[in-house]
UniProtKB/TrEMBL annotation:
The lineage of its organism: Bacteria, Bacillati, Actinomycetota, Actinomycetes, Micromonosporales. Pfam families: Glyco_hydro_1. Keywords: Carbohydrate metabolism, Cellulose degradation, Glycosidase, Hydrolase, Polysaccharide degradation. The active site is at 172 (proton donor), 366 (nucleophile). PANTHER family: GLYCOSYL HYDROLASE, LP05116P. Belongs to the glycosyl hydrolase 1 family. This is Beta-glucosidase.
């Protein structure tokens, strides 16, 4: 057994990429500026009862106007990579069709600012802010949306491709499909398992088409980011618990990994497309398009899952087809999200990816934790977040030692920000944001992380 929570000094490989991540709707604000139109999150935030206290991203961290200060802050922390997403409704206010150059201007300025500070920009095309006009035509249940994502890719790389090396098509299609169209806790808030599976396929088709468009536009590194987890059977020797874990592993991991990296959906997942009446959206040739070669798989990891077979249990609309599967509460420390803290899930996940999907370089594109931070003067003593990050970095290092081809680590998130359905009520930042003054205050975890980057490891 690899020790992943000890205190032995660890060093990461030379060239390991260190950084932090954000997403457009979560930080930018400036929701109605320079031609941006509403996204599904603007609509969702305005729908009573959907988001904590009705919070929206109208203002957020005002990053749209404060990006220079934010880049200076990144520089002070020593970040080598900054992962951000572009807002589709800024670049294509009508969803498809003409480009709004004022929208692209913002990202142009941001990229230049990053490069001026020696920070490598990593651009995600879609981190959940679909133009509302496209949702009005069915959103991700409409096949056209996949082609429009490829158009967005072409337009964006045409403008930024001379300076941006690393591109990501989608962030977490599991969330977009199953939380957006299945359980409805994310925008657009639909609750229909058929729509959720249709969305899965059109997102993955969009990934493949966008990957091609990026390649055609000269992208040097093309990637896909998935939220993956380590799924464990409650009683490892129990075959019913094993089957339960296999099913959840299918819905959470293999449904996205297999088409992207192996060229076909898993059989058990195809059966669910059939069962929910969504198999018709998979056309001949689609799987070959989805399997467009990628250079990097982005892994977002927060927590493991523990599941068991339980007659009558229902694990919820976010996992359609999982009747009889129960998610078991894990008795370990939790974050402010109530998510269990277990770094061994990260090492297990990375080693599993290395074994099952070989020859795919990996990057942790999100990892981090929300805590109820307390500000004391000009300091935030967030030891719990430091503990979370330290444990997960040790786990990542153990996986590298075990053979995983892990190229980098990006903390989620640079700033406290709009945490989707939780609004501003949950703080994932290594930097505190005071939403009254917009003042940024690096938490102890940010200062600690700067030292980690500086020494390329942990003491
Ligand atoms: C990810 N879940 O979201 C996103 O990529 C970020 O934008 C987000 O702020 C971060 O993780 C923290 O939540 C997720 O329910 C949201 O399993 C929900 C889930 C997973 C990831």
């Amino acid at each position: 057994e690899e020790q992943v929570t000890g205190t032995a000094p660890v060093r990461f490989p030379a060239g390991f990429r260190w950084g932090a991540a954000t997403a457009s709707y979560q930080i930018e604000g400036a929701a109605a500026e320079d031609g941006r139109t509403p996204s599904i999150w603007d609509t969702f935030a305005r729908t009573p009862g959907k988001v904590f206290e009705g919070h929206s991203g109208d203002v957020a961290c005002e990053h749209y106007h404060r990006y220079r200060d934010d880049v200076a802050l990144m520089k002070r922390l020593g970040l080598g990579t900054y992962r951000f997403s572009v807002a589709w409704p800024r670049i294509k206010p009508d969803g498809s069709g003409p480009v709004n150059s004022r929208g692209l201007d913002f990202y142009d300025r941001l990229v230049d600012e990053l490069l001026d500070h020696g920070i490598d920009p990593m651009v995600t095309l879609y981190h959940w802010d679909l133009p509302q006009v496209l949702e009005d035509r069915g959103g991700w249940t409409n096949r056209d949306t996949a082609y429009y994502l490829a158009d967005l890719a072409s337009a964006t790389i045409a403008r930024l491709g001379d300076r941006v090396r690393t591109w990501t098509t989608l962030n977490e299609p599991w969330c977009s499909s199953f939380l957006g169209y299945g359980s409805g806790v994310h925008a657009p808030g639909r609750q229909d398992p058929r729509a959720a599976f249709e969305a899965v396929h059109h997102l993955m088709l969009g990934h493949g088409l966008a990957a091609r468009a990026l390649r055609a536009g000269g992208a040097r590194e093309v990637s896909l980011t998935l939220n993956l987890t380590d799924v464990r059977p409650y009683t490892p020797a129990d075959q019913h618990d094993q089957a339960a874990a296999r099913l959840i592993d299918g819905l959470q991991n293999r449904l996205f990994l297999d088409p992207a990296l192996r060229g076909h959906y898993p059989q058990d997942m195809l059966a669910l497309f059939e069962r929910f009446g969504a198999a018709g959206v998979i056309h001949a040739g689609d799987e070959a398009l989805i399997a467009a070669p990628i250079d990097l798989l982005g892994v977002n990891y927060y927590q493991p899952a523990l599941v068991r077979a339980q007659v009558g249990a229902h694990s919820g609309e976010a996992h359609p087809g999982s009747e009889g599967v129960e998610f078991v509460t894990q008795h370990m420390p939790v974050t402010a999200m109530d998510w269990p803290v277990d770094p061994t899930g990260l090492s297990a996940l990375l080693l599993r990816l290395a074994a099952d999907y070989p020859d795919t370089p990996l990057m942790i594109t999100e990892n981090g934790a929300a805590y109820d931070d307390v500000v004391e003067g000009d300091r935030v003593a967030d030891d719990d977040r430091i503990g979370y990050l330290d444990g997960h970095l040790r786990a990542a290092h153990a996986a590298i030692e075990g053979g995983a081809d892990l190229r980098g680590y990006l903390a989620w998130s640079l700033l406290d920000n709009y945490e989707w359905g939780y609004g501003y009520g949950k703080r994932f930042g290594i930097v505190r944001v005071d939403y009254d003054t917009q003042r940024r205050l690096p938490k102890d975890s940010a200062l600690w992380y700067a030292e980690v980057i500086e020494r390329n490891g942990l003491s």
